[in-house]
Amino acid sequence: MDLTTLTYLAVGLSFALYIGIAVWAKASSTGEFYVAGKGVHPIANGMATAADWMSAASFISMAGLISFLGYGGSVYLMGWTGGYVLLAMLLAPYLRKYGKFTVPEFIGDRYYSKTARLVAVVCLIFISFTYVAGQMRGVGIVFSRFLEVDLLTGLIIGMGIVFVYAVLGGMKGITYTQVAQYCVLILAYTVPAVFIAMQLTGNPIPQIAFGSQLQGTDTYLLDRLNQVVTDLGFIEYTEGSKSTIDMFAITVALMVGTAGLPHVIVRFFTVPRVRDARSSAGYALLFIALLYTVAPAVGAMARYNLTATVQTGAIGSPDGNLTYEERPEWMKRWEATGLLSFEDKNGDGRIQYYNDQNADFQTQAAEWGWQGNELDVDRDIMVLANPEIAQLPNWVIALVAAGGIAAALSTAAGLLLVISSGISHDLLKGTITPGISEKTELMAGRIAVAVAILIAGYLGYNPPGFVAQVVAFAFGLAASSLFPVILMGIFSKKINREGAIAGMLSGLVFTMGYIILYKGVFIEPVIPNTPDNWLLGISPEGIGAVGMVLNFIVAFLISKVTAEPPDHIQHLVEDIRTPRVTAAAE
Amino acid sequence: MSDNAENANTAYWKANVTQIVVSLIIWFIASYGFGILLVDPLNAIEFGGFKLGFWFAQQGAIYVFLILIAVYAIRMNALDRRYGVDEQ
After folding, report:
1. In chain A, what residues touch B70 (CB-CB under 8 Å)?
2. Which family does the UniProt entry place this protein in (chain A) (predicted)?
């Protein structure tokens, strides 16, 4: 069978599975629609959380980012896993004990304020839409490359599938679909990694192959990679180009942002007991770690393979580079998508791939007749192109396509659900029209999902950046607005309504303002986005860390000078701190 | 709620917070410490094909996180029972 047929088969089968699950797990009450009736086993919830969590950015972009950033890519690895420690210890068990449906609902009750709840809903909607746009773009990339349809058609197909199972099944449908999607995506990610690890080092376990010797030599993969990339003018793979303070800030923002993402937190509302919330966070991280410890190995091996493909002979010798005529099939296929491009600057018909931003090296390169880097590789294609670069069988490539789509869809569905519950439960039922029946609320929730899908599709078609970068903003905002107020709501009895609202607003406005100033999300950037211009040397990706600190300080100071929370709130805080349901709490 | 139960709850909460603080110190050292702040000195140490600081940043920290959550979940289950606040 040819690749296209195989891919249609793999993707088609996985879609049939998801829709089958959705029909089986149709939600019949708001409890099932919002939190799957609180009956999900912790291991199943761990898998669902992992799929929910690992987005198109994790699956498609992350290893690619790491392969170009080297050590600098570690911020994503530590940042996107370390947050689970915070979740397991600081948030999940207590929010599960509190036991309602949404994150804004907790904030509204704890801070006895509809305004606080509204501010939280606005933060939640903003974060989730930013994030979902990245997923939709991921879906589009996979469809346009593997199914050879255009981006718009790809988006519409993806939106249609999510529509069916999110609208029908709500959280219950989403949870069990995510379990299936996790299995698809982890298989799709690890199988090619195992093959490539075998090819390069003879060791099938990527985490070990990463630190092993290249097959038939006594040189370690990482040492060889360091040498090859520095010979081409890049910085050493195991060294970073980011400053220490920026690495630190980005890691904080990603970790805390992870813990503050509403679609992740809400997953812990679906397990039966408090102890399940803790263990479930552990299972979630275990399932996530399966991919996250493979990703850096994939990144390093992909970088090595890419360089070795282009630089076939000695660097600087006239026939040391691959000729454009002889380029492999996968390059031709990716050129068609525009995500890989070649420009023969020196007219020698060969591909020179090196760092022409390095002035010293460029002088040297000019002597060889190299007139600039000729190959542009979009980071987003590294994982998808990896099996082709390593010349793996077609079924592996088809599996990767299905995995990429599973990663994007599972995350999109989780996000769309929190958006819809924010609208139907927090805005309509909680604020605007409290009198509506459960049936009406359920219908409103379903309509909200449908509308959210349309907006997400539009954002995916006109995205404000590449996948991982769009997602990074969502983290900054989650870190600076939601995480601090939830944390203080549990660990302090003294933080009051005024403090929480002021804290959330200052964190949100500061972080958004900083990002827009340098990145210009919908406008042109006001200040050039270079390290010299940054506050304390912290990039827009890491500024959420400062926003978080600001939120804490403002909330603390304002709470000091305003009235203490009433007694019943202090009792609420005491109650959520212990797992047992006591009569006094009822 | 009786005074006894209240005291037990306060003691339980203190024990929990201690557990969290210890865990987060380890969490901080493994990631921010070994992976970022001390990465250069640690990179002088090599094991297998890895520089140690680089390994912590891209592999080791994640394993430490996993162990921390597992230990916390197990110890909290024991604490829940000891202070009589477990779910019956």
Report:
1. 282
2. Belongs to the sodium:solute symporter (SSF) (TC 2.A.21) family.
